[in-house]
Amino acid sequence: MPPLPQSIVVIDYNGGNLASAARALTRAAQDCGIAANVTITADPHDVLSADRIVLPGQGAFADCAAGLSARPGLRDAIVAATDAGTPFLGICVGMQLMAQRGLEHGVTPGFGWIRGDIGLMSAPGLRLPQMGWNQLDFIPGAHPLTDGLARDAHGYFVHSFALGGYDPATLVATTDYGGTVPAIVARGNRAGTQFHVEKSQQVGLRILANFLRWTPTPAMDAT
Protein backbone atom coordinates (compact mmCIF):
# COMPACT_ATOMS: atom_id res chain seq x y z
CA MET A 1 0.00 0.00 0.00
CA PRO A 2 1.24 3.53 -0.74
CA PRO A 3 2.07 5.67 2.31
CA LEU A 4 -0.67 7.89 3.68
CA PRO A 5 -0.41 11.57 2.66
CA GLN A 6 1.31 13.87 5.12
CA SER A 7 -1.07 16.12 7.01
CA ILE A 8 0.26 19.68 6.73
CA VAL A 9 -1.56 22.40 8.66
CA VAL A 10 -1.23 26.10 7.95
CA ILE A 11 -2.24 27.96 11.11
CA ASP A 12 -5.15 30.37 10.65
CA TYR A 13 -5.11 33.28 13.11
CA ASN A 14 -5.66 36.22 10.75
CA GLY A 15 -1.88 36.39 10.29
CA GLY A 16 -1.95 36.87 6.53
CA ASN A 17 -0.49 34.97 3.57
CA LEU A 18 -2.43 31.82 4.45
CA ALA A 19 -3.66 30.89 0.99
CA SER A 20 -0.36 31.65 -0.72
CA ALA A 21 1.54 29.60 1.87
CA ALA A 22 -0.86 26.68 1.39
CA ARG A 23 -0.51 26.87 -2.40
CA ALA A 24 3.28 26.94 -2.17
CA LEU A 25 3.31 23.91 0.13
CA THR A 26 1.02 22.00 -2.23
CA ARG A 27 3.25 22.88 -5.18
CA ALA A 28 6.42 21.92 -3.29
CA ALA A 29 4.93 18.55 -2.36
CA GLN A 30 3.90 17.88 -5.96
CA ASP A 31 7.31 18.90 -7.32
CA CYS A 32 9.17 16.46 -5.09
CA GLY A 33 6.65 13.63 -5.27
CA ILE A 34 5.41 13.80 -1.68
CA ALA A 35 1.76 12.95 -1.01
CA ALA A 36 0.40 15.72 1.21
CA ASN A 37 -2.91 17.16 2.35
CA VAL A 38 -2.52 20.87 3.11
CA THR A 39 -5.20 22.40 5.34
CA ILE A 40 -5.71 25.94 6.63
CA THR A 41 -7.07 25.60 10.15
CA ALA A 42 -7.48 27.16 13.58
CA ASP A 43 -8.68 23.90 15.15
CA PRO A 44 -6.34 22.77 17.95
CA HIS A 45 -7.25 19.13 17.27
CA ASP A 46 -6.02 19.47 13.67
CA VAL A 47 -2.77 20.92 14.95
CA LEU A 48 -2.23 18.14 17.47
CA SER A 49 -2.79 15.44 14.84
CA ALA A 50 -0.78 17.09 12.05
CA ASP A 51 2.44 15.69 10.64
CA ARG A 52 3.84 19.20 10.07
CA ILE A 53 2.89 22.69 11.19
CA VAL A 54 3.40 25.94 9.26
CA LEU A 55 2.84 29.34 10.90
CA PRO A 56 2.77 32.25 8.43
CA GLY A 57 2.62 35.84 9.57
CA GLN A 58 2.82 39.43 8.44
CA GLY A 59 2.38 42.75 10.20
CA ALA A 60 3.23 43.52 13.81
CA PHE A 61 4.57 40.93 16.28
CA ALA A 62 2.10 42.01 18.98
CA ASP A 63 -0.89 41.75 16.65
CA CYS A 64 0.10 38.27 15.49
CA ALA A 65 0.71 37.09 19.06
CA ALA A 66 -2.70 38.46 20.07
CA GLY A 67 -4.31 36.73 17.09
CA LEU A 68 -2.91 33.39 18.22
CA SER A 69 -4.03 33.90 21.80
CA ALA A 70 -7.53 34.86 20.66
CA ARG A 71 -8.11 31.38 19.21
CA PRO A 72 -8.97 29.12 22.18
CA GLY A 73 -6.42 26.35 22.65
CA LEU A 74 -4.49 27.13 19.46
CA ARG A 75 -1.25 28.39 20.98
CA ASP A 76 -1.22 25.56 23.53
CA ALA A 77 -1.76 23.02 20.75
CA ILE A 78 1.20 24.38 18.76
CA VAL A 79 3.41 24.17 21.85
CA ALA A 80 2.22 20.65 22.74
CA ALA A 81 2.62 19.33 19.19
CA THR A 82 6.09 20.75 18.71
CA ASP A 83 7.15 19.63 22.20
CA ALA A 84 6.20 16.14 21.03
CA GLY A 85 8.43 16.49 17.97
CA THR A 86 6.14 17.69 15.17
CA PRO A 87 8.24 19.67 12.66
CA PHE A 88 7.37 23.37 12.66
CA LEU A 89 8.11 26.12 10.14
CA GLY A 90 7.46 29.80 10.89
CA ILE A 91 7.35 32.29 8.01
CA CYS A 92 8.20 35.99 8.50
CA VAL A 93 6.40 37.03 11.71
CA GLY A 94 5.73 33.33 12.24
CA MET A 95 9.49 32.92 12.55
CA GLN A 96 9.76 35.98 14.80
CA LEU A 97 7.22 34.48 17.20
CA MET A 98 9.76 31.72 17.92
CA ALA A 99 11.87 34.28 19.83
CA GLN A 100 11.65 35.23 23.49
CA ARG A 101 10.06 38.65 23.04
CA GLY A 102 8.85 41.12 20.47
CA LEU A 103 9.64 44.80 21.09
CA GLU A 104 7.21 46.32 18.57
CA HIS A 105 4.33 48.26 20.19
CA GLY A 106 5.57 47.35 23.67
CA VAL A 107 7.00 44.09 24.98
CA THR A 108 5.18 40.93 23.88
CA PRO A 109 6.23 37.40 24.86
CA GLY A 110 6.99 34.97 22.06
CA PHE A 111 7.18 31.18 22.22
CA GLY A 112 10.71 31.39 23.64
CA TRP A 113 12.01 28.55 21.47
CA ILE A 114 15.10 30.48 20.41
CA ARG A 115 17.13 33.10 22.26
CA GLY A 116 16.72 36.76 21.38
CA ASP A 117 14.29 39.63 20.90
CA ILE A 118 12.59 40.99 17.79
CA GLY A 119 13.58 44.65 17.55
CA LEU A 120 13.73 47.42 14.96
CA MET A 121 16.52 46.83 12.48
CA SER A 122 19.55 49.11 12.39
CA ALA A 123 20.28 49.77 8.73
CA PRO A 124 22.01 53.16 8.39
CA GLY A 125 21.48 54.71 4.99
CA LEU A 126 19.06 51.98 3.91
CA ARG A 127 15.30 52.10 3.62
CA LEU A 128 13.05 50.32 6.09
CA PRO A 129 11.27 48.08 5.64
CA GLN A 130 13.75 45.91 3.82
CA MET A 131 11.62 45.03 0.83
CA GLY A 132 12.72 42.86 -2.06
CA TRP A 133 15.23 40.20 -2.97
CA ASN A 134 18.37 39.69 -0.91
CA GLN A 135 21.05 37.02 -1.02
CA LEU A 136 21.17 34.26 1.58
CA ASP A 137 24.49 33.45 3.25
CA PHE A 138 24.75 29.87 4.48
CA ILE A 139 27.10 26.92 4.64
CA PRO A 140 26.03 24.32 2.07
CA GLY A 141 25.22 21.01 3.71
CA ALA A 142 25.12 22.44 7.22
CA HIS A 143 21.33 22.06 7.58
CA PRO A 144 18.76 20.00 5.65
CA LEU A 145 16.57 23.06 4.97
CA THR A 146 19.22 24.48 2.62
CA ASP A 147 19.89 21.24 0.73
CA GLY A 148 20.13 21.87 -3.01
CA LEU A 149 20.25 25.66 -2.79
CA ALA A 150 22.82 27.49 -4.90
CA ARG A 151 25.36 29.64 -3.11
CA ASP A 152 23.79 32.75 -4.66
CA ALA A 153 20.23 31.86 -3.60
CA HIS A 154 17.99 34.84 -2.85
CA GLY A 155 14.88 35.20 -0.69
CA TYR A 156 12.11 37.79 -0.83
CA PHE A 157 12.09 39.94 2.33
CA VAL A 158 9.51 42.41 3.69
CA HIS A 159 10.30 43.49 7.26
CA SER A 160 11.51 46.30 9.51
CA PHE A 161 12.07 44.18 12.63
CA ALA A 162 14.54 41.33 13.04
CA LEU A 163 15.98 38.90 15.56
CA GLY A 164 18.73 40.31 17.78
CA GLY A 165 20.64 38.91 20.74
CA TYR A 166 20.45 35.48 19.14
CA ASP A 167 22.39 32.29 19.76
CA PRO A 168 24.67 31.82 16.71
CA ALA A 169 24.05 28.08 16.93
CA THR A 170 20.44 28.64 15.81
CA LEU A 171 21.40 30.47 12.60
CA VAL A 172 21.02 28.44 9.42
CA ALA A 173 21.29 31.39 7.02
CA THR A 174 21.75 35.14 7.23
CA THR A 175 21.45 38.07 4.88
CA ASP A 176 23.13 41.47 4.84
CA TYR A 177 21.10 44.64 5.22
CA GLY A 178 23.23 47.22 6.98
CA GLY A 179 24.68 44.30 8.94
CA THR A 180 24.00 40.64 9.56
CA VAL A 181 20.30 39.77 9.68
CA PRO A 182 19.06 36.26 10.60
CA ALA A 183 17.27 34.80 7.57
CA ILE A 184 16.71 31.15 8.56
CA VAL A 185 16.79 29.87 12.13
CA ALA A 186 16.36 26.36 13.50
CA ARG A 187 16.47 24.66 16.86
CA GLY A 188 15.51 21.02 17.09
CA ASN A 189 12.28 20.41 15.19
CA ARG A 190 11.38 24.12 15.02
CA ALA A 191 12.58 26.33 12.18
CA GLY A 192 11.68 29.64 10.62
CA THR A 193 12.44 31.94 7.70
CA GLN A 194 12.46 35.72 8.03
CA PHE A 195 11.83 35.99 4.29
CA HIS A 196 8.63 34.87 2.56
CA VAL A 197 9.33 31.40 1.18
CA GLU A 198 5.94 31.44 -0.53
CA LYS A 199 7.07 34.48 -2.56
CA SER A 200 10.64 33.32 -3.17
CA GLN A 201 9.94 31.30 -6.32
CA GLN A 202 12.17 28.24 -6.86
CA VAL A 203 14.31 28.97 -3.81
CA GLY A 204 11.23 29.07 -1.59
CA LEU A 205 9.77 25.93 -3.14
CA ARG A 206 13.05 24.10 -2.55
CA ILE A 207 13.11 25.13 1.12
CA LEU A 208 9.49 24.02 1.54
CA ALA A 209 10.26 20.69 -0.13
CA ASN A 210 13.22 20.28 2.21
CA PHE A 211 10.92 21.01 5.15
CA LEU A 212 8.48 18.32 3.99
CA ARG A 213 11.34 15.79 3.86
CA TRP A 214 12.97 16.95 7.11
CA THR A 215 13.26 14.46 9.99
CA PRO A 216 14.57 16.59 12.86
CA THR A 217 15.40 15.75 16.45
CA PRO A 218 13.38 17.79 18.97
CA ALA A 219 15.20 20.28 21.18
CA MET A 220 14.68 18.99 24.70
CA ASP A 221 16.20 21.74 26.82
CA ALA A 222 14.61 25.13 27.47
CA THR A 223 15.95 28.29 25.84
From TrEMBL:
Pathway: Amino-acid biosynthesis; L-histidine biosynthesis; L-histidine from 5-phospho-alpha-D-ribose 1-diphosphate: step 5/9. The active site is at C92, H196, E198. Residues 19-212 form the Glutamine amidotransferase domain. GO terms for biological process: L-histidine biosynthetic process. CDD domains: GATase1_IGP_Synthase (cd01748). Gene3D superfamilies: 3.40.50.880. One of its GO terms (cellular component) is cytoplasm. InterPro entries: Class_I_gatase-like, GATASE, Imidazole-glycPsynth_HisH. It catalyses: L-glutamine + H2O = L-glutamate + NH4(+); 5-[(5-phospho-1-deoxy-D-ribulos-1-ylimino)methylamino]-1-(5-phospho-beta-D-ribosyl)imidazole-4-carboxamide + L-glutamine = D-erythro-1-(imidazol-4-yl)glycerol 3-phosphate + 5-amino-1-(5-phospho-beta-D-ribosyl)imidazole-4-carboxamide + L-glutamate + H(+). Its EC number is 4.3.2.10, 3.5.1.2. Heterodimer of HisH and HisF. IGPS catalyzes the conversion of PRFAR and glutamine to IGP, AICAR and glutamate. The HisH subunit catalyzes the hydrolysis of glutamine to glutamate and ammonia as part of the synthesis of IGP and AICAR. The resulting ammonia molecule is channeled to the active site of HisF. PANTHER family: IMIDAZOLE GLYCEROL PHOSPHATE SYNTHASE SUBUNIT HISH. This is Imidazole glycerol phosphate synthase subunit HisH. The gene is hisH.
